[in-house]
């Protein structure tokens, strides 16, 4: 996810002119190069450093949780979360105007939707997968909420 995000952003920066859209599907889908210092929908544009710190916390937390993963759905969701967070964090650290204040490159534009990037797609799918796993009661270790762990004694009397 991270590599795909960074590769597509590099292509967008190299091939697209800011402020000029390329129509891929008329009235539906364009390529439009923009830069975003905020979060989704450009919210928090003045909080780029805070967004960078939050992304670092997310990345460290997901990496620490990875050791416990035994459920494919959780692994998929957290992997997409990690890739998406790292993709946008890379922009915030390495792009202008300065480290931790860098603007995220966005270039995918759908009708009635803000311009976004591949990392944002990963983050959106991650949210759906994680929500689905949580609502199903699936735990990261492959069990279900409320189930006893293999070595956990039962408290019920016979």
Summarize the structure.
The protein has 158 residues and is of the alpha+beta class. It is built from four helices and three strands; from the N terminus they run H-E-E-H-H-E-H. The longest helix is centred in the middle third of the chain and has 23 residues, at 72-94.
Question: What distinguishing features does this structure have?
Answer:
single chain; 158 residues; alpha+beta; three-stranded antiparallel β-sheet; 46% helix; 13% strand; globular
What does this structure look like?
The protein has 158 residues and is α+β, with helices and mostly antiparallel strands. It has 4 helices and 3 strands; from the N terminus they run H-E-E-H-H-E-H. A 3-stranded antiparallel β-sheet has the order 1-2-3. The N and C termini lie far apart (51 Å).
* Low-confidence segments: none
Please trace the helix and strand order, writing H or E for each element.
HEEHHEH
Relative strand content: 5-15%
Q: What is the oligomeric state here?
A: single chain
Helix count, per DSSP?
Answer: 4
Helix fraction, binned, reads 40-55%
Q: Give the overall silhouette.
A: globular
What is the spatial order of strands in the main beta sheet? 1-2-3
Radius of gyration: 19 Å
Helix/strand structural class: alpha+beta
Query: Largest sheet, if any?
Result: 3 strands, antiparallel
Whole-number mean pLDDT:
90
């Amino acid at each position: 996810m991270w590599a795909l995000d960074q590769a597509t952003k590099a292509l967008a920066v190299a091939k697209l002119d800011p402020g000029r859209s390329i129509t891929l599907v008329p009235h539906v889908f364009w390529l439009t190069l923009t830069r975003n210092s905020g979060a989704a929908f450009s919210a928090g544009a003045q909080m780029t450093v805070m967004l960078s710190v939050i992304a670092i916390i997310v990345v460290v937390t997901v990496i620490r949780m990875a050791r416990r993963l035994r459920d494919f759905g959780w692994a998929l969701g957290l992997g997409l979360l990690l890739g998406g967070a790292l993709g946008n964090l890379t922009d915030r650290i390495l792009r202008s105007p300065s480290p931790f204040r860098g603007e995220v490159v966005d270039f995918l534009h759908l009708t009635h939707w803000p311009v976004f990037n591949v990392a944002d797609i990963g983050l959106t799918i991650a949210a759906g997968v994680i929500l689905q796993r949580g609502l199903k009661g699936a735990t990261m270790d492959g069990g279900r909420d409320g189930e006893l762990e293999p070595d956990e004694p039962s408290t019920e009397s016979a």
